[in-house]
């Protein structure tokens, strides 16, 4: 069930009405209803995988209880390792089995040894990368003593399967989201309006920006060997806005929907394309996964303790794993490693946190230095995203080589694609709106602040009609559903 589908338009109001008909003094009943609604939502993708998420939930719930009772460190460690083994084992089997099998076969082929093991026809469960890391945050934090294990299975199951952020994040920590299931949740008109604003902006990002870019990007990457270098550059730039609009759009919708039900999710994107250096970019892009790898992989590896060589090793390991998390393809691993190499110098020098505030704060325009920093950072990540979008390493290499041609000075060659210049104009307007709202949690949060209520609603209605008129509703799934 897609957020940008008719099914969800029918599902959401029904769930919203029934949920708030349950007294706010009965959070357990509200949790039970949210659990049932979330399982129905997930079952609409593929009901066969409901057993998988239920199994993962039960395992970590029981391990959490055991960790709360066990005092011997050896046994506590074994309990944690069981949770990690089960969760990562399930993720590894469904997502990476064929990838590692094919890589294993290819490595032997290079040595002249040929064999053909059976490749399994495995269907990747939607959202498994997200809810796996979410449940792991629970057992790890219980093990570390940062969180008391819960005895309320319904609340815990609702936390794992909470439908707004179940299939594509943000990846919420148990320490932040789980306690909210035990609190009294009363309807707030102001919070609901703010949530719907964020949902509206998320839909703008997805169906107007991302999906219009997708039509052109798909054509360019499918025909990259026949197009001019200038057209390939356009493909690079538009894909940057496609993937940002797609994933941050989903996050905005998820965060806004959660607010409708009285929950607060953490910000997942903080205007990353306005970053002045690479370190700042990775603090603003996909924050929930970046901080997850920082706290549960980078720091346990030793973080920045020890020699610079050890620190560099830890950084590259984390970025390689984060690249692999995105997909079972060598392109994603290289995407992670190259990003690690680009962020490595500033992290080793300790300058990766040089820019922590909002760019051009209290000013309309950035300085030349800020503008150059933003432009160079954006272009660097855009070129690396070739690896993210290409079908395989050969495709990525051919695309990159195609950029080095005198056709870079020629016009665009997209005879079969309509709306190219309309899409470019949409992206420019989108950048301006994001720049104007860069100090807010989402770009239109302060739109119409202080206006008459009728004027504000007129603007929201206009945005809704723009979504309907300009939206490309034929593109379907969000990019991150494949992860």
> What is the arithmetic mean of pLDDT?
88
CA radius of gyration: 23 Å
Helix content: 55-70%
How would a textbook summarize the main sheet? none
The end-to-end span amounts to 16 Å
Tally of helical runs? 17
Q: How large is the share of residues in beta strands?
A: under 5%
Along the chain, the helix and strand elements come as HHHHHHHHHHHHHHHHH
Estimate the global geometry from the Cα principal axes. Answer: globular
The parts where pLDDT drops under 50 for at least 5 residues are none
Total beta strand runs: 0
Query: Number of folding domains?
Result: 2
- Structural class based on helices, strands and sheet pairing: mainly alpha
């Amino acid at each position: 069930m897609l957020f940008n589908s008719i099914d969800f338009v029918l599902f959401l109001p029904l769930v919203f009405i029934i949920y708030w008909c349950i007294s706010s003094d009965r959070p357990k009943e509200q949790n039970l209803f949210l659990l049932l609604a979330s399982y129905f939502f997930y079952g609409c993708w593929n009901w066969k995988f409901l057993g998988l998420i239920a199994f993962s939930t039960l395992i970590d719930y029981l391990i959490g209880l055991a960790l709360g009772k066990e005092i011997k460190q050896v046994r506590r460690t074994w309990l944690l390792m069981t949770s990690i083994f089960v969760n990562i084992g399930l993720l590894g089997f469904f997502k990476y089995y064929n990838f590692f099998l094919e890589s294993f076969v290819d490595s032997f082929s290079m040595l002249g040894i040929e064999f053909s093991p059976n490749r399994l026809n495995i269907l990747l469960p939607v959202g498994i990368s997200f809810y796996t890391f979410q449940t792991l945050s629970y057992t790890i934090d219980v093990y570390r003593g940062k969180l008391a294990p819960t005895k309320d299975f319904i609340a815990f199951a609702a936390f794992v399967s909470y439908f707004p952020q179940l299939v594509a994040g943000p990846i919420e920590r148990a320490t932040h989201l789980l306690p909210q299931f035990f609190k009294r949740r009363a309807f707030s008109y102001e919070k609901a309006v703010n949530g719907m604003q964020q949902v509206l902006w998320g839909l703008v990002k997805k169906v107007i920006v991302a999906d219009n870019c997708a039509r052109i990007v798909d054509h360019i990457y499918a025909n990259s060997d026949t197009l001019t270098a200038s057209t390939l550059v356009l493909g690079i730039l538009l894909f940057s806005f496609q993937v940002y609009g797609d994933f941050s759009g989903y996050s905005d919708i998820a965060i806004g929907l959660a607010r409708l039900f009285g929950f607060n999710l953490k910000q997942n994107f903080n205007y990353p394309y306005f970053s002045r250096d690479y370190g700042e970019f990775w603090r603003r892009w996909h924050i929930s996964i970046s901080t997850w790898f920082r706290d549960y992989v980078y720091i346990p590896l030793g973080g920045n303790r020890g020699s610079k060589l050890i620190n560099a090793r830890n950084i590259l390991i984390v970025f390689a794993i984060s690249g692999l998390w995105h997909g079972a393809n060598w392109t994603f691993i290289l995407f992670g490693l190259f990003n690690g190499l680009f962020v490595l110098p500033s992290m080793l020098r300790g300058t990766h946190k040089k820019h922590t505030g909002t760019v051009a704060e209290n000013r309309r325009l950035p300085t030349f230095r800020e503008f150059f920093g933003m432009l160079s950072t954006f272009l660097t990540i855009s070129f690396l995203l070739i690896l993210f979008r290409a079908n395989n390493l050969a495709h990525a290499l051919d695309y990159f080589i195609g950029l080095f041609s005198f056709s870079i000075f020629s016009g665009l060659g997209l005879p079969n694609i309509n709306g190219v210049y309309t899409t470019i104009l949409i992206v420019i307007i989108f950048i301006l709106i994001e720049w104007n709202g860069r100090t807010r949690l989402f770009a239109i949060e302060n739109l119409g602040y202080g206006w008459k209520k009728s004027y504000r609603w007129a603007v929201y209605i206009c945005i809704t009609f723009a979504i309907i008129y300009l939206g490309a509703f034929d593109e379907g799934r969000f990019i991150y559903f494949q992860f």
